[in-house]
Amino acid sequence: MTGPEVATEPIRLLDADGSLVESDANAEWRELAGQLSTDDRLAMHGEMLRTRRFDIEAGHLQRQGKLGLWVPSIGQEGAQVGAAWASRDQDTIFPSYREHLIALHRGVDMLQIIDIFRGAVHGGWDPLETRGMRIYSLVIATHALHSTGYAMGIRFDGACGTGDASRDEAVMAFYGDGAASQGDASEGLVFAASYDAPIVFFVQNNKWAISVPSTRQSRTPLHERARGFGLDAAWVDGNDPLASFAVTRRMLDAARQGRPGYVEADTYRMGAHTTSDDPTRYRPSDEEESWRRRDPIARLAAHLRELGVDDATLAEQDREAVELAADMRRRMLVAGTAASDDIFDHVYSEPHPLVLEQKRALAEFEAGFGGDA
Amino acid sequence: MQEFRLPDPGEGLTEAEIVTWRVQPGDAVHVNDVLLEVETAKSLVELPSPFDGTVEALLVEEGQTVEVGTPIIRVSGGDADAVETTIDTQQTVDRDEEGGAVLVGYGVRGGAETRRRKPHTVRDVPPPVASARPAPPASVPAASATPVIAKPPIRKLAKDLGVDLAAVVGTGLAGEVTRDDVVQSAKQASVFRNLQAPEWSGGREERIPVKGVRKVIAQGMVDSAFTAPHVSVFTDVDATRTMEFVQRLKASADFADVKVSPLLIMAKAILWAIRRSPQVNSTFTGDELVVHHYVNLGIAAATPRGLLVPNVKDAQQMSLLELARSLQQLTTTAREGRTQPADMQHGTFTITNIGVFGMDTGTPILNPGETGIIALGTIRQKPWVVDGEVRPRWVTTVGGSFDHRAIDGDVISRFVADVASILEEPALLLD
Q1: B93/A27 Cα distance (integer angstroms)
Q2: Given CB atoms, is B5 within the 8 Å cutoff of chain A?
Q3: Does the predicted model carry a pTM greater than 0.80?
Q4: Dihedral sign, Cα of residue A223, residue A225, residue A226, residue A230
Q5: How far is B43 from chain A (nearest CA, A)?
Q6: Could you tell me whether strands B372-376 and B34-39 are parallel, antiparallel, or unpaired per DSSP bridges?
Q7: What is chain A's Cα-based Rg?
Q8: CB of A238 within 8 A of CB of A263?
Q9: Model confidence over A146-170: pLDDT tens digits?
Q10: % of chain A residues with pLDDT over 90
Q11: How far apart are CA A281 and CA B93, in angstroms?
């Protein structure tokens, strides 16, 4: 996968109808995907449904004035679920702001995500409580550097490279085709390659950086660009959860042994960039239609039916997903907001005189309103 | 009983137009059922119900533009906690037309640029006068085959002047569009407006209510025209030296940060001429003629709100630079629609600059309560006789109207001749 040949097709195990694709080219990936039992695959399907129901509910809440903004991930669940299942417990994950499935998979509560977008918290959760899932990075591509630095730290600590995949740590950084044009993204690749950092950059190429098509931003496929930086790189069908899992698992385990990697997942953002965006102004509806037929959830569902899972089981998963989303809405409607001085508690790990002074000043200022602040 | 207030469906939007109601009073609605479609400066979006219950009343009509926070629908009974959803990968956007090349950026572009949907949104809605939003350009030029070559400051200049770079013929190297090209194009554009005639509107007539600024203007014009007997005079003048003076001022460091135009010289000329003929700067009350020993110099300005005449208070005390700054501030404020009533009161004399519209001259109507008004026509090169020879000179027409109750032809003529003589030789200001 690191050879000079230029791929014409992304790696694929399930076609758009959910049928298994069997070829010599994907034999090694089929074998890797074999690590996933039917129950695993059903669970992956459940996570995708939960994420989509959650996503739709959040979109509605935004239109009802409950959220300032929402960033839909609809259409990208297949790439994410494969990557989520490919990660191991000891791994650390640096997301952008669209990795809802990854966050939920690692144990972030739906409401924690919602709280960011309704402005109830300043952002964030404790990664020790979310299995290494770091906070959403709202500034484009900055975390390409943070994640690379973190991975270099793992290496300096000697917490990787022992040959034991169940213990060696690795890092995943998630960003998109738009972020790939940022300088930070390229710097991350340079340092990751130079320091053999245990990291995989998982790039969801959803084709549109708001209104700019990815073809405009990169004259060469993104995975080819990564090879130019000296990383192992792969191109995978992002709407194929099995392929996404197999490729990412292989890349991550190589990263643990000091070979940083890059996965370009070929996917599509079915909705708007955010609720502030109107994609009908810049992209053709037939393009959306052609991707709608490649929906990752429908694809895995078809595969599960071939494996003998009955429709009732799938329908039950959907009912659960709907109920979880409704539960999120109910909890959100009664949830409060963080205290206004909460921000001071997370600047330094230890008390800091200047910050304490600011916290005191804010308290005095607010007291000046007689409790109405 | 619960009311749904118009949320901000984008980031920082302040208003939206109600396009289509999908429910009617009496309908049962569930949480997340689509209630209506609204159009914002950014997009057309569906708003889902936050409540379960029965629609009690629609509080806003289709076609109305309302501010964020306005109650738009009342729903009675039901349970605000219930949830029902349907799988829908399209989620929020649903439009059936105009998949055009309008880009979506980060910022809100303001109500003025809200994209309008075509006819079916306009039903029994009153004519959209109140919102006073300019129609979109008749045609948006498609991306030209050859890209425009222009440096960023020139692109900025073109944007500021409203010049479409694609329509400018570049005279620089390899067809680069230069600063002069843009400025020239802007000048032409200010003369040749409405080159593209829009289609006739539907309907045989359009009824536009007379209100607001229009009503005030109408009343003022009637008061003035049928109270003060107007007498108008005109004189052509060679303003070449004024043009040279303007160029020198533009090049001088003192005037680097301020707009200098022939209007500035005209203002100064009027202030000078008023000292020689103070009666033109007066108010005729019927019993007496109140001659002002100060000049609150009004400038008639075409603004988004209509014709306004804010004035520069005590302009007679100002140096040329101070006057230039005051005029600039006054016109900027007017164009931004921020002119305060106090800025328009107690004027004593007015200039109307119809030259910016390409007109040679016209018969101005007095600002009510004033005795004189001067019109500055366009300044362009014309044949002019100098020392018995015909030469191209920068020529303009000074026109003015005066209240004949207050003053007579001799004063009027001297005053206008004085103004013209300054335009002909600005050095006279150094008296």
Answers
A1: 41
A2: yes
A3: no
A4: positive
A5: 6
A6: unpaired
A7: 21
A8: no
A9: 999 999 999 999 999 999 999 999 9
A10: 83
A11: 10
Between CA B9 and CA B19 the distance in angstroms is: 14
List all residues 6 or more positions away from A319 whose beta carbon is below 8 Å from its beta carbon: none
- Judge contact between A324 and A53, C-beta under 8 A: yes
Give the list of residues 6+ apart from residue B256 with CB closer than 8 angstroms, or none: none
- Is the backbone of residue B76 left (phi > 0), alpha (psi -120 to 50) or beta? beta
B293 is annotated as an active-site residue:
no
Provide the token pair at A290: 């052609």
Residue among B397, B394, B401 nearest B300 (CA): B401
Cα–Cα distance measured from residue A90 to residue B193, given in angstroms and rounded to the nearest whole number:
69
pLDDT bucket at A369, cuts 50 / 70 / 90: confident
CA angle B188, B194, B195 (to 5 degrees): 70
Among A65, A272, A284, the residue with its CB nearest the CB of B93 is A272
**Residue B149 CB burial class (10 angstroms; 0-12, 13-18, ≥19):** middle
Q: Per the CB < 8 Å rule, is A59 touching B103? A: no
Tell if the CB–CB gap between A329 and B48 is shorter than 8 Å: no
More confident residue, A5 or A336: A336
Q: What are the angstrom distances between the C-alpha of A234 and each of A11, A171, A225, A262, A265?
A: 8, 17, 11, 6, 8
- What is chain B's Cα-based Rg? 28
* CA-wise closest residue to A217 among A245, A256, A176: A176
- What span, in angstroms and rounded, lies between the C-alpha atoms of A278 and B339? 36
Tell me the C-alpha distance between B346 and A67, whole Å. Answer: 50
**ipTM (interface pTM):** 0.81
Whether residue B238 contacts residue B245, with contact meaning beta carbons closer than 8 Å, is answered with: no
Confidence of residue B115 (pLDDT cuts 50, 70, 90): very low
Contact B419, B273 (CB under 8 A): yes
* Cα–Cα distance for residue pair B220/B300, rounded to 1 Å: 13
How far is the C-alpha of B88 from the C-alpha of B90, rounded, in Å?
Answer: 5
Which residues are within 8 A (CB) of A94 and not within 5 positions of it... i.e. 6 or more apart? A134, A137, A143, A146, A147, A150, A171, A172, A173, A174
Residue partners of A11: CB distance under 8 A and separation at least 6 = A25, A26, A29, A234, A235, A236, A237, A243, A246, A247
Q: Which of B45-59, B208-222, B246-260, B365-379 has the lowest mean pLDDT?
A: B208-222
H or E segment at B230? strand B230-238
CB count within 10 Å of CB A50 equals: 24
Q: Among A140, A139, A144, A104, which Cα is nearest to A125's?
A: A104
Asked if B71 is an interface residue toward chain A (Cβ–Cβ < 8 A), one would say no
| Whether the Cβ atoms of residue A82 and residue A134 lie closer than 8 Å to each other | no
Among chain A residues, CA nearest to B51:
A64
Partners of residue A66 in chain B, C-beta under 8 Å: 7, 50
pLDDT (tens digit per residue) in B310-363: 999 999 999 999 999 999 999 888 877 777 778 888 999 999 989 888 889 899
The CB-side HSE value for B413 (13 A sphere, CA atoms) comes to 3
Neighbours of B262 (CB within 10 A): 21
Distance (Å, rounded) from C-alpha B296 to C-alpha B316? 8
Q: How many helices (H) and strands (E) does chain A have?
A: 14, 7
Residues of A in contact with B5 (CB under 8 A): 65
Helix, strand and coil content of chain A, in percent to the nearest 5, comes to: 50, 10, 40
Are A29 and A20 in contact, with CB atoms under 8 Å apart?
Answer: no
Q: Token match 């045609």: residue? A: B139
Q: Please report how the helices A77-86 and A296-306 are oriented relative to each other, as an axis angle in degrees rounded to 10.
A: 60
Interface contact A52, partner B, CB < 8 A: yes
